[in-house]
Structures are given as C-alpha cells and as structure tokens.
Specification:
It is built from 21 helices and two strands.
C-alpha cells in the first residue's frame, strides 16, 4: 500500500505543478475558444489541461518502475506499455481537438485506433465469468470487439460530463478510488496477480485527478479539454479490461471454500464488465440519454446541446458548486455501494444504508423546489426570496410605480417654474452635451 500511495502522491504533485505553466502555454497558443451558448462559464478559459495530466501519468509510472514491489510489474505484464501507447494516441488526438477542433467522426475513429493498438498489445477480454458456471471463454474477435466498445463508451461518457468546473475530474477520481479498493482487495486478499496492474493504473489516475482539481474547481482557471477527459476515460477502461475476464473464479473457490461464497465475493465482476460501468453510472446514463434525445429529435448523436444532467441541475435552481457536489454524491454512492456489496457478508445492511443515503440525496436534489415562504402579513418586510412570487412581483410593481410617480412629481414643478421666454431661450441654447459635442467637432 505504501508504494501505491507514493505513486499516487508523485502523480498528484507533478500534475499540480505542471498546470500553471501549461495554462500559460495554452493562453499563448490561443487554446481559449470563445464562450458558446451551451457553455456554463462566462469568460474564455484556457484548455489543454490534459498536458499536465499526461505529465502526471508519466511521472507516476516512472516512480512505480523504480520501486521494488511495483517494479516487477513492468517486466511481468505488457499492460503498462499498452496503456502508454493508447494514452499517447488519445492525448495527441485531444490536443489537436482542443487547439483546432476535430470532426466527431474523426475523433471516434481515433478512439477506435487507440483501443485497437492496446488490444493488439494484449489488453483484451479473454473470458467472461458467469455466476454458478465459471469463466466463459470468448474468441479473439469477440474479445477485441468487447474491449474496443468498452474503451469508446468509457471515453465518451467521461467526455460528456466535462461540462461543469471540477465535475469530470472529481467523478473520475471517485470512480478510480472505488476501483482501486476493489482491485487492491483482489490482489492482496486473494493473491490474484492479474489485479495488480488495475490497482496501479487507478492509483496513478487518482493522483492525476487530485493534482488537477485545485485548478479546476469553480471558478476554474483551466479546463482539461478533450486531451484530459478522453485520457481519463481510456485509463478507466484499461483498468476494467485488465482485471475483468482475467480473474479465474476457481481461484476464489479454492480460497473461500464454496461456489456460493465465491459468487458473492465476485459480485461486481461476475456480470460482464459491471463494475467499471457502475463506477461511472451517471456519465453512462447521461451518454445514453443524450444519444436517445438527439436521435429522437432528428439530430446527430454527436450534436452538442445544453440538456445534460448537470445542466438540468442548474435549471432546477442549484448553484454551480452544489450541482457538482450532488453529482459527486451520487457517483460515490453507486461506486462505493457496489464495492461494499462485494466486501461485506451481509448485503442487507449495505442495501439499507444505500436506501437511506438515496433518500438524503433526493432531499438535497429537491431543495430548490421547497423554498420557505413567509406569511402574507409580513411579506412586505422580509427579503424577496422569502416572499410569495405573486406578492413579491406585485410589491415590486407598486414600488416601481411609486418611484416613477415621485420622479414625475419632482420634474413637473421644476419645469413649471420656467417662464415661456426662459423655455424658448433654453431651446435655442441646447443642452450642455450638445454644446460640447459641437466644440469637439470643430476642434477635430
């Protein structure tokens, strides 16, 4: 655990220190697109934050290679080289999109190429564990298709939620924490060496997100851009593929004594790829809803809009920070709840706890719908937010009418004091602004 924590700290520190120079570079390079109608921020903000995150990735893996325990992984497994290849392709594609913009279909093709390169180097699903039956082998073609689809879905799911300051980095960090705990438990508790690369990847991913978040929280000084969001999604997918389909249920059966207990111990990975999908359940749901919504409206699934889940939270009445925290809460509840079910022997307690937390989350979610209202007798004396909407509007209208009448009353007597000759003289002289304008025209 100490080596993982050291790798996490190195990755976070390097990412944090690189953000400031990367921000200056992004401003100098002109990677500050104009504010669009669907954007939430109000001022142009530099992108290319993925450059700092890619530096954190390299630093974390370099530190791991120098450690006695994690260093053996670089010799025994080819997953690390495959990750670097895919992340490098995705990083370059993201930088090009952040600076010049890349067509959606071209971007999708680049994502598939990055996934294909990793599959070619060995990151692929070999078998799918089925409850009560065991591992079901898949053909190389089937494993390749499953792996590529998982990478593309995960990358676009993370990219879709990158719409509020700190949202994508925070939710990916929560998902990576949950996945790290599960992978570390399989590796340490059951001696499954195939889970070690996933634990390393998620530890580095946690460090990257923690190092970037201080600069990305509202109001954000820099955005990660596609160079960061696509890379984060790819790393989550690689961690999922490197462990899913490589864990032999028979090894768990030998240690726990029965298939029933083994099935319970492996709940999150017995259903194909369920754990990596649950840890990003909200981004995945947002992605599916967006595709259905746009297709139903006769638009392209890649067409941008302002109807994502985080946009709807803002429309309900939540502030920017509260909307982000609500998304954090639900992501953590789903991700850690899934891991807790696989760890504890009594699933009922976990389910009841999750149900109670769901009620708390729903109460917070609906807070803007329930605003306190003062009695009508005291509404004229309380701030507008505590008044009834109609009463507040009527009071504001009465105040506006009274102000207008007062201004009119002040102006009429002042003009009535002028005689007809004075009014004619004032008309011939004009206003001071007119006189100044004429003098300025003459001098110019």
């Amino acid at each position: 655990m100490r080596e993982y924590l050291l790798v996490m700290f190195v990755s976070a520190a390097v990412t944090y220190l690189l953000v400031s120079p990367v921000r200056k570079f992004a401003i100098a390079a002109g990677a500050m697109p104009a504010v669009r109608a669907r954007d939430v921020h109000r001022e142009p903000t530099p992108r290319l934050g993925g450059i700092a995150m890619f530096g954190g990735l390299l630093a974390g893996l370099l530190a791991a290679s120098q450690l006695s325990g994690l260093g053996r992984m670089f010799v025994q497994s080819a997953d690390i080289k495959a990750l670097l290849s895919g992340a490098g392709i995705m990083f370059v594609l993201g930088v090009l999109d952040d600076k010049w913009g890349v067509d959606a279909l071209v971007k999708l093709g680049g994502q598939m190429i990055a996934a294909g390169v990793m599959v070619w180097q060995g990151i692929t699903v070999i078998a799918i564990p089925v409850p009560g039956y065991g591992s079901v082998p898949v053909t190389p073609t089937q494993g390749m298709l499953i792996s590529v689809v998982l990478v593309v879905v995960m990358v676009n799911a993370v990219n879709f939620i990158d719409g509020l300051d700190g949202l994508a980095a925070g939710m990916v960090c929560i998902a990576a924490m949950a996945f790290f705990l599960y992978s570390y438990r399989l590796w340490l508790g059951y001696g499954i060496n195939d889970a070690a690369p996933a634990a390393l990847f998620t530890a580095v991913l946690i460090g990257m997100c923690l190092g970037f978040l201080p600069h990305n929280l509202h109001p954000a000084r820099i955005f990660m851009g596609d160079s960061g969001s696509m890379m984060l999604g790819l790393m989550l997918a690689v961690a999922a593929i490197s462990i899913t389909g490589r864990v032999d249920p028979d090894l768990i059966v030998e240690q726990v004594g029965s298939k029933t207990t083994a099935v319970h111990a492996l709940v999150p990975i017995y259903i194909p790829l369920i754990l990596p999908l649950t840890v990003i359940a909200l981004p995945l749901a947002d992605l599916l809803l967006a595709v259905v919504r746009r297709t139903w409206a006769g638009k392209s699934p890649f067409a941008a809009d302002k109807q994502h889940l985080h946009h709807r939270l803002l429309e309900v009445g939540h502030s920017h920070s509260r909307a982000v925290l609500i998304m954090y809460f639900w992501a953590a509840l789903i991700a850690f709840g899934t891991v807790a079910v696989s760890v504890t022997n009594t699933g009922r307690a976990v389910i009841l706890s999750m149900a109670g937390l769901c009620l708390v989350g729903l109460a917070v979610l609906l807070m803007p719908r329930f605003k306190p209202r003062a009695p009508k007798a005291v509404q004229p004396f309380v701030p507008p937010r505590y008044r009834d909407d109609e009463a507040a509007g009527a009071a504001d209208e009465r105040n506006a009418d009274a102000d207008a009448a007062e201004r009119s009353a002040d102006e009429v007597p002042a003009m009535a004091e002028l005689s007809a000759e004075d009014k004619a003289l004032l008309g011939r002289m004009g206003t001071g602004a007119t006189a100044v304008g004429q003098r300025g025209d003459q001098h110019s």
